Amino acid sequence: MIDKLTSALQFQQQALALRQQRQETLASNIANADTPNYKAQDFNFATALKRATASQTGPVPLAKTHSGHLSLSNAHQAPVAMQYRVPAQSRLDGNTVDMEMERAQFLDNSLRYQADIQFLDDRITGLRKAMQPEQ
């Protein structure tokens, strides 16, 4: 039963993890907008999600918060291929951060993260209703 619940939520778990990683990357780009020679980075979310879900063979990785917890392998999680952004206009200090594009990408990713949270909440609600006995 738990395996079925785990497999039902794996896609959303991977999507949220990648959204969080992309949000951190975009935030790093924005934070370094004035750093000389900083090269803005990003990754293709769709490609990363395909790779992450294709290589998923085991259960959702769990956090080990106590020494008595079982250790699970995280080997099935593929690293994200980071890419440098090509600037639309070069700057004299060598920085490639375009603040307008970074802010737009940050907002877009934030909205998609919230949507993924809502999809996950709806999925859990549906599974919970399916497990309830009829009254």
3D architecture notes:
The protein has one domain (2-131). Helix content is 54%, strand content 3%. The protein has three helices and two strands. It has helices at 2-31, 45-54, 99-131, and strands at 41-42, 83-84. A two-stranded antiparallel sheet has the order 1-2. Helix 1 packs antiparallel against helix 3. The protein is elongated and about 70 Å long. Keywords: Bacterial flagellum, Cell projection, Cilium, Flagellum. The basal body constitutes a major portion of the flagellar organelle and consists of a number of rings mounted on a central rod.
List SSEs in N-to-C order.
HEHEH
Strand content: under 5%
Unreliable stretches (pLDDT < 50, length at least 5) are: none
**What global shape is seen?**
elongated
Family: Belongs to the flagella basal body rod proteins family.
Main location: other
Domain Flagellar basal body rod protein N-terminal: 9-39
Function: Structural component of flagellum, the bacterial motility apparatus. Part of the rod structure of flagellar basal body.
Descriptive tags:
cell projection, FlgB, flagellum, Flag_bb_rod_N, 135 residues, cilium, mainly alpha
Could you provide a short overview of the structure?
This protein has 135 residues and is mainly α. It has one domain (2-131).
Layout of helices and strands:
Elements: H1 2-31, E1 41-42, H2 45-54, E2 83-84, H3 99-131
Antiparallel strand pairs: 1-2
